[in-house]
Amino acid sequence: MGDASNTLPEFKQIHEMHALAAAAIAVLAAVAASRDALSLTASLGPLTTLPAATLGTARPPWSAERAIAAFERGVDRSRLRETLRNLTAVAHIAGSDADRAQAEAIQAEWAAAGLPNTHIKTYFPLLNRPVSRSLTLLAPERFEATLREPAVDGDDTSRDEEVVPTFLGYSPSGNVTAELVYANFGSPADFAALAARGIDVRGKIVLVRYGSAFRGLKVRAAELAGAAAVLIYSDPAEDGFVRGPVYPDGPWRPPLAVQRGSIMYPTFYEGDPLTPFVAATENATRLPQSEAPCLPKIPALPISYGEAKPFLAALKGHGVAAHTIANDWQGGLDIEYWTGPAGKAHLFIDNEFAVKPIWNTMAVIEGASEPDRAVILGAHRDSWVFGAADPGSATSVVIEVGRVLGEMHKRGWRPDRTIVIATWDGEEYGLIGSTEWVEDHVEILNKTAVAYINLDHGIAGDVFRAAASPSMANLVRQATKGVRDPNSGQSIYKKWNRRVGVDTPEGRVPQVQPLGSGSDYVAFLQHIGIAAVDMRFTGDEGIYHSNYDSFNWMAKFGDPTWKYHEALTLITGRVLLPLAHDRVLPIDFVPYVHELRTYAKDVAAALGGASMPVEWAGRLDASIDVFEKAARKLRKEADHLRRDDADEDNVVVDAVDGSGDGIDAGVSVLTVQGGSDDGLAGIVPQQHPKHPKHPKHPKEPKHRAVNDKLGFGERGFIDMAGIPGREWYRHVVYAPGEWSGYGAEMFPAIHEAIRRGDSAGTNKIIASVAATLRRAAGMLAA
Ligand SMILES: *[C@@H]1O[C@H](CO)[C@@H](O)[C@H](O)[C@H]1NC(C)=O
Ligand SMILES: *[C@@H]1O[C@H](CO)[C@@H](O)[C@H](O)[C@H]1NC(C)=O
Ligand SMILES: *[C@@H]1O[C@H](CO)[C@@H](O)[C@H](O)[C@H]1NC(C)=O
Ligand SMILES: *[C@@H]1O[C@H](CO)[C@@H](O)[C@H](O)[C@H]1NC(C)=O
């Protein structure tokens, strides 16, 4: 978002809207606060019913290393492929019969494999479905859009062209006949640029292109600017022929492929639009649909670039030539883009809204020595259509992890801490299944969850990316040192560091991005402060949310050998199993310090830009100094315990360390054998030279105290008052950007106050964030 937003008159409106939303939501927040604690215990059985005190019982002789070795022997690439084939055989949009059948099939498969406590958790969110729609250009000439994605040779599932018609989640119905205006990416700055040139979008059908920000925020900006309706099209410059050969000849978007998606405004909260703060149970208290602040008020439809072209061409010669505003206003079609207004179009949308059930598949593997501490792994299962890359690739990895852990469980393996595995439903509409589950279990998760691992859109190529709480960054880096990149043969870590290495006080390490929004980690991290990580392999992909995100696309372009599915499964095991087993949790807050310092510098720059006193940022710096001291002290305590444990076991155990430049640098009890360059081929677990009688128990008081600081330290960043105007978001360091949606904004409340030009408010919020950072430091230092 550019500086232009500062001056937008719409911002006044937004804050009036905030106030309205706040009033309605306050009612539900009050319900959440008063809910009956006993009712929360129902579905997480083992986490709440087991006695907390198992101190002194013999710890089963499983280390993370042994568990990883067993896990890696169990992972089966051909099964990953077969699972994806099954998942993509039918369209399975959230709340459909096929979606439910898959939830049940996964539960049955996990139970058969040996996973204990499998169950399906049902919630009842508001969803919409397309009933009918039409789009016609009436003038200067007539063109009727087909709104269909035609069958493609060699892609069996594409034969069913309208199995899920092209539509947008939560678009209201509408019937609009109006002139057209082109508004580039549809950002507030783009609308301001049109206004500055005297181009009035009020009452018009606004044509915007995908890219740059979350689609719902394009509709929100258009709504605030007074537009009557929105068409969102996939410009070929974004993911079509401009990028390379199109499907089925290449991985990029063909002319008639359409990106479906949700346009719920993520500004205020995620999850079911009608039940912020509380779970969407069957009889939950619901907001009236008209009062849900995240629901768009104007109709919107997604279209292909093939069908957008006549509408864009109709604008030529009217308004201003798009490239005169900025170069990026000219898209990739071979026509000259103009703004309009011009032409005339008719858009009709009939969408049916209803509260419908969705189904999360869950499994709980009770921890043997710390049943009251939990690590959660999840990927969503629902898709817009067949969903091979999004989300099937990730779902298949989570199903495989569950299956292998089930087999291990049958053979006597037990994690030390409890592992919860989920395939979430309703993610595509607004991260619903995960958010409702979190809202349903706030208290128990608050007391027990040490980390959440998210996978989504897991594989669409060979480029590894991770986003995480900085406290988890080194664990992810460590995990990638032990897995080989199938294409290059080097470790994932090496390739990743070569591509996006960044210099930090701890050396050159691969960049781990901040978590914004766009997947199921949001409620965990930003609503209740559970450290989270999201991992994926990306690549050339132009089939996102279309009918062509299919098994055939994956087999031809995304991951023809399924080796990246296997690699992601192995990496996931190397993140999950240390969290479940390590006597001292592999979490570290020192990497937070460098990030916080960078974000504080950005605050200082923004203060300067807004002519507010730059020295206000000094209060953040002072708190970060305190935080740094606490984080370093905690790291020392943790390392000390690790060394003691290692001495006792007579094995070498390295501290969590994300630096170093090879797979062997931080791999502890693993021996690297074989003659390949970095020796990955023969990783086997080494015999403990002297098998410990009974390794130290994670529940021993010293371990327990340090682990609680590591496992719950992220909670310190939570301010229960939330971000002013969008109180559901409570993490003071990270929130989805008000106008980017997917991207994270750091110290969000501060930047929002600066952008409002609210000097006194900014000063107050900086003080409050600085106090929260000190409180976080206090928790680590306790
Ligand atoms: C795929 O589906 C078939 C038919 O339902 C089933 O027999 C098979 O076990 C499934 N395979 C996997 C890997 O899920
Ligand atoms: C849409 O509105 C027009 C003009 O008001 C009306 O004639 C037409 O019947 C409406 N179409 C539908 C499908 O409701
Ligand atoms: C919800 O309310 C209906 C109607 O009163 C009732 O039959 C049903 O059992 C309730 N469901 C739950 C889960 O309480
Ligand atoms: C988590 O527990 C702490 C300590 O009891 C409490 O202060 C905090 O409000 C809880 N967090 C949430 C999200 O309920």
From TrEMBL:
Peptidase M28 domain segment(s): 360-552
Compositionally biased spans, kind Basic residues: 688-704
Domain spans labelled PA: 176-261
Keywords, comma-separated and alphabetical: Carboxypeptidase, Hydrolase, Protease
Gene Ontology molecular functions: metallocarboxypeptidase activity
Coiled coil (residue ranges): none
One Pfam family linked to the record: Peptidase_M28
Origin: domain of life: Eukaryota
Enzyme Commission number(s) of this protein: 3.4.17.21
Gene3D superfamilies xrefs: 3.50.30.30, Transferrin receptor-like, dimerisation domain, Zn peptidases
Keyword check for Membrane: no
Domain Transferrin receptor-like dimerisation: 696-780
Enzyme class: hydrolase
Annotated spans, Disordered: 685-704
Family, as annotated: Belongs to the peptidase M28 family. M28B subfamily.
Protein name as it appears in the record: Vacuolar protein sorting-associated protein 70
Annotated organism of origin: Polyrhizophydium stewartii
Taxonomic lineage from the root: Eukaryota, Fungi, Fungi incertae sedis, Chytridiomycota, Chytridiomycota incertae sedis
